[in-house]
Amino acid sequence: MHHYRELQRILDGHPVGAPEAEEFLEILKILFRPDEVAIATALDFKLRPVDEVAAKCGLSAAEVGRRLEAMADRGVVLSKPGPAGRLYALLPVFPGLFEYPFMKYGGDTPEQRRLAELWQAYYMKAWARSLAEADPPWMRVLPAEQALPEITEVLPYEVASEMIKKAGEMALGRCSCRVAVGKCHNPVDVCLVFDGAARFLIERGIARRISLDKALAVLRETEEAGLVHCTSNNTGQLLFLCNCCPCCCHVLRLVVEHDYPRALARSSYLARVGPECTGCGTCAETRCPMKAITLQETAAVNEDRCIGCGLCVTTCPTGAMTLVKRPAHAEPPPSPQVLYALNAARRTGK
Question: Which residue from 24, 21, 53 is spatially nearest to 39, judged by alpha carbons?
Answer without folding.
Answer: 53
